[in-house]
Write a structure and sequence with these properties.
The structure is a single chain. Helices cover 42% and strands 19% of the residues. The N terminus is likely disordered. By secondary structure, the protein is an alpha/beta fold. Helix 1 crosses helix 10, helix 5 runs parallel beside helix 6 and helix 7 crosses helix 8. The strands form three sheets. It has a seven-stranded mixed sheet, sandwiched between helices. The chain folds into two domains: 165 residues, Rossmann fold; 131 residues, Response regulator (Rossmann fold).
């Protein structure tokens, strides 16, 4: 299998060797059936959030196998824009009916998606919102199905502010600066910190990556020993921040928050290493997009609209309450 690409095809009662092949030579939807083919194109497969997203999508397809076939794709890391563009092109060439995409960049994927729409393919945007100005200039209308990233980040920041004292120094680990969700999460963090009277002494992009976050956070903490908290725009970077505090001898001394609610961060919250995160329900996020695509395919006259999906604050208290509820 080509590096950076995972294709999972789920077919009811049919093995891969009984199917057609897609443009990459991998198994595609079964020949001769009338079910629509939906392609899910995600970002980094190394990020637990997107593996959770893929699991949720494949589970949904198994439960609705009579309704549609699914092709799941991803890239090696968040910065591999050219490969994600290629995936869009490959899915168009393979004849899918719909593309549900979490774009790695809010602008770079728009030309490829324009060509997909010109080929009659339904396109649904999830996770990271495409740039509205560029869409308008291209004359495109692509619905966004996803959470309010700014509101989610502000909720996390507000919770953090309650554990700090006005005037405390904090820093931000940003996502990719060309990604709308990264921009919105940074803005939400900044609003919460400014309203609470905190001092943002540094803010840098770690490009969603754990190792880069470790390096940058270590530098921040060394340069600004007064830092009391780190706000990370995703959970991978929050995990990198944990390693950074340990490397500079400040483990347990700096409050850390994240965004995504991956399993590793849930354990870190329970263990007191991370204060809070935001849950945008990654296991359902692709499902929301797939359902929007299926609705459009079944009724072409229906106007596609943006759909705001849930985002919730996750803390040690909420995790404990969830566990207690499951035991009842």
């Amino acid at each position: 299998m080509r590096a950076g690409l995972l294709i999972l095809v789920l077919l009811c009662g049919c093995s891969a060797r009984d199917t057609d092949r897609d443009a990459s030579g991998h198994a595609g939807a079964g020949a001769g059936n009338n079910k629509p083919r939906v392609a899910l194109i995600m970002k980094s497969l190394a990020n637990e959030f997107f593996s959770t997203m893929a699991d949720g999508a494949t589970t949904h397809q198994r439960e609705h196998a009579e309704q549609y076939d699914l092709v799941v794709n991803g890239i090696k890391d968040e910065r591999d824009l050219s490969r994600q563009v290629e995936l869009v092109q490959e899915m168009v060439a393979s004849g899918v009916n719909a593309i549900v995409i979490a774009p790695a960049d809010s602008k770079a994927l728009i030309p490829a998606l324009r060509r997909a729409m010109a080929a009659g393919i339904v396109v649904i945007n999830i996770d990271n919102k495409l740039d509205e100005k560029m869409l308008k200039s291209e004359g495109l209308s692509i619905p966004f199905v996803g959470p309010d990233n700014r509101a989610g980040a502000q909720a996390v920041g507000d919770y953090l502010a309650g554990k700090l004292t006005p005037g405390d120094a904090v820093c931000i680990l940003e996502g990719l600066q060309t990604s709308e969700n990264g921009q919105q999460r940074k803005a939400g963090f900044e609003t919460a910190m400014n309203e609470a009277g905190m001092k943002i002494v540094d803010s840098q992009s770690a490009e969603w990556e754990m190792s880069k976050a470790n390096t940058i956070a270590s530098s921040m903490l060394s340069e600004h020993p007064e830092i009391k908290a780190i706000l990370a725009a995703n959970d991978s970077m929050a995990m990198g921040a944990i390693a950074a505090t340990k490397s500079v001898g400040r483990a347990g001394d700096v409050l850390i928050v994240g965004f995504d609610n991956i399993a590793a961060v849930q354990e870190a919250i329970r263990g007191g290493k991370i204060l809070a995160t935001a849950d945008q329900h990654g296991d359902q996020l692709a499902v929301f997009g797939i359902e929007a695509a299926l609705n459009s395919l079944s009724d072409a006259e229906t106007e596609l609209k943006n759909v705001e999906t849930p985002v919730d604050l996750v803390t040690a208290e909420s995790l404990a309450n969830d566990s207690a509820s499951e035991e009842l």
